[in-house]
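Input set for joint prediction.
Command: fold jointly, output tokens.
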Amino acid sequence: MSDDLWILGIHMTKFGKHPDLDLVDLAGQAALAALDDGGVDMRQVQVLAAGNLLGGAGSIGQAVQKQIGQTGIPVYNVANACATGATALRTVCMAIKAGEADTGLAVGVEKLSGAGLLGARPRTEQEGEWKRSGRFGAVQPTDGFIGTESMAGVFAQVGMEYGHRYGGTDFELFARISEKNHAHSTLNPLAAYSKRMSLEQIMGDVMIAYPNTRPMCSANCDGAAAAVVVSDAKLRTLDPDQRRRAVRIRASVLTTDPWEEACQVLPNVNTLTRNAATQAYEQAGVGPDDLDLVELHDCFATAELVHYDNLMLCEQGGAVDFFNSGAPWRDGRMPVNVSGGLQSKGHPIAATGIANVWEVATHLRGEAGPRQIEGARVGLAHVIGLGSACGVHILEKAAA
Amino acid sequence: MADQIPFVDYLVLGDEPHLVARECVGCGARYFDRRVACAACGTRDFAAVPVPRTGEVRAFTIVTFAAPGVPVPFVAALVDCDGTSVRGNLVGVDPDPEHVHLGMKVALTTYVTGTDAAGVDAVNYGFAPVGG
Ligand SMILES: [Zn+2]
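tokens >
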């Protein structure tokens, strides 16, 4: 018997528009489907962690319980920016590791169809006399006057800074990363958008924040994902069929951004990701070369580039060469975002951190259909939320 | 002549407008916003230090799509002012990738963003290209 935890059941709803389903419907459906997938029901679940970032649902976990089973178990409602889903999963893992539960359920849900630019708040007209407010003592909102608060702009600078440091980046390179993910999405029936886009279409689309055009930005959509996690001891008591499809969680890591010069000016999404990856590889006892696929947080095309480096899929400074070698394409040496990534699969924020794990788990189970990465044994799922929080999970196929 | 006030409290106007950082007396970490303690070392005391007025563009984006009411396009940048990173807009340069470059040398400049009911101008900072 080991300390390892297992994903027993996991589910991701179709990402896209769900006008007739609210947050609770979507989360409830995902949770029930994850329980069904694992062959368990709410009576076995001893801890629930749930996340919804922007829906204002309040206690989403309790709302979900009202739909799928009010069994009186503890609920942890979590919020951690774009790492909310991964945080829910990690919370359940901690509870099981601590010995307080042997079976837990993590759920993440978001409804963002039709949502505009994230991170940007509408301005209010100045009336009367100047008055200072906020921690910079500003007389007006600073967005647009002292840099940008739009996510597209922040992550554009993240990619540009990498280019400044190591060279080799230009508009077309970032657009080609997006071209890859849109091409991958054509094989994913659950993706919000599954149309192949040419480089010309991507570069010619509406510019949001140079060098990110609209298709190079994560797609706002509705969706939910849920996972059932069990301890190794619990797994041993279950049927062979359940055990055969269980996916081993080799590492579950959450980090925040350590202080560095400039982090107050432009969020540093690099160091906390590198730290999370380092810890995860150590926990899992594997290295980047052992990975068969990676789902990383491509909230913008400019972000995907830096995370090749941060997750150590290439040598330091080598992300451009790594991409140009064809490695992250689905037929390459290190397939990245074969789901289509956030740019085409979509990014229902609190669902994303579990949906990425679902994608990896589905390949490890050999159940990914036409987009299956053949023989996948080990995979990594990464998310990052500004603020910042980074979640990394490394998963391994069950031994036959 | 209209009165003027700085757009943010870390901008000092006058003959040589410049930024002032709150520098941790323990480790030298610099902050532009109000802090309770240093995020790097925990020291609770800060000293005001002037920030060099010239620097180099380390990252930028040209924002063409922003929240309602935010004038676009504009160039948002991370400027390295001799070791102190500063967030600001690039001004006095066409907001297109032919004119804005990584590594570009820039200097702090100021401009009026608006006038309030009492006739007071709010003066903001930006960075403009210097030299060739
Ligand atoms: Zn300090």
